[in-house]
Design brief:
The protein has 3 helices and 5 strands. It is α+β, with helices and mostly antiparallel strands.
Length: about 140
């Protein structure tokens, strides 16, 4: 079951991308990058009503024949995108939301590391382990 996750600051360049399996990785990169435009559209459409919220779960951004694309934005405008196989009917909306919360908490731990420069690619064993366990849960 393919899953791809990206963390992106407001400039929309990837900080972390992970795909399983890796044979269609380029297709996932394309899907994730095109979904960032949908994230921006949803944020601008919602306007200032969501400024007060601490987190912004965008839900299903768009479905394709093969995949479902979900989005999440933090209060600092870091975007998380998750691509899940559309045949996976076991995942419910609240499970996707909790997966994004785990991802957000792990990202916050990385940002609190004094040796991490914000904007650099994420190279963290703890973050990798969390993403791997999340992907195994989905598969």
């Amino acid at each position: 079951v393919p899953v791809s996750i990206i963390c992106s600051p407001p400039q929309n360049y990837p900080l972390y991308i992970r795909s399983v399996p890796t044979e269609n990785e380029l297709k996932f990169h394309y899907t994730v990058h095109t979904s960032l435009d949908v994230v921006d559209e949803k944020i601008s459409a919602m306007g200032k009503a969501l400024v007060d919220q601490r987190e912004l779960y965008l839900g299903l951004l768009y479905p394709t024949e093969d995949y479902k694309v979900y989005g999440y934005v933090t209060n600092s405008k870091v975007k998380f995108v998750m691509v899940v196989d559309s045949s996976n009917t076991a995942l419910r909306d609240n499970e996707i939301r909790s997966m994004f919360r785990k991802l957000h908490n792990s990202y916050t731990d990385i940002m609190c590391n004094p040796f991490y420069n914000p904007g650099d690619r994420i190279h963290s064993r703890a973050f990798d382990n969390m993403v791997n366990s999340m992907m195994m849960q989905v598969c």
